[in-house]
Amino acid sequence: MTFKIGTRGSKLATTQAGHMRDALIEAGFGAELEIVTTAGDVNMAPVERIGVGVFTQALREALVEGVCDIAVHSFKDLPTAPDERFRLIVPVRADSREALIARDGLTLETLPEGATVGTSAPRRISQLKAKRPDLDIRPLRGNIDTRMGKVTDGELDAVVLAYAGLSRVGQGDRATQVFDPTEIIPAPAQGALAIECRADDTAAIAAIESLIDPTTSLAVQAERIVLRTLEAGCTAPVAATSRINGDEITVTGGVFALDGSRQLLSTRTGPTNDVLALGKQVAEELLASGAADLIAAE
Length: 298
Hints:
Elements: E1 2-7, H1 11-26, E2 30-35, H2 39-42, H3 47-50, H4 57-64, E3 70-74, E4 86-89, E5 98-102, E6 116-118, H5 122-131, E7 136-138, H6 144-152, E8 158-162, H7 163-168, E9 177-178, E10 193-198, H8 202-208, H9 214-229, E11 238-245, E12 248-256, E13 263-271, H10 275-288, H11 291-297
């Protein structure tokens, strides 16, 4: 049997899905890509206007309809509520950090006063503004090449992208600065993929379970429970990161005012067998500090 792997048609999406196809083939399963067009691919409005899950809904519908057997998502794009129609696993994670791609090798600190920086993510905007209130933040959509092209052609001084995506398409060296996760906190589950199949498809379940990475699975569970407990969508100004050291995990969450004027942070460390409780504790501490008001303000 050859499994059809549903993916968006962008270079990054097909590269990510291609890695999963190759891993399945290496594990002894037949697999090929099936391109699925999503609303986010044809609508260039900001993601926060199109709606949460815009990149994943069409892939899930393709699974239900039997157009594909397996779907590959960027995990940070998935809604936080579990969907019992599907079996979801998480493979090895790529680098979760944020990257700056700037003209002339500039860094965030050396960008000139009033520099134009492209990003549409409220989480990135708020953290950039906190560090550099003078920056002129511009909306940004499109694939990786389109976004970086705005720097190359002089339209923008810099853009901020996920380093994982850059690395996956072989352009990690384009980054002029890669931020420590404590400096600019990434999105919950950034750098991680979510691989799904139908919950009643025992053959596909056996195939995708060969790709599970237990460490990554624990880390993203912790980060996404922060987001879910805050009842915030993937476009909210919410960030979360985690670090596993042996049997312990440190979870950090942040909620930000879009203008950079206020940042709420919480960190908890505990055993890896208690990641859900730790993530909830981080979120509850943020809520106690006023996180709901900051989220609602956006």
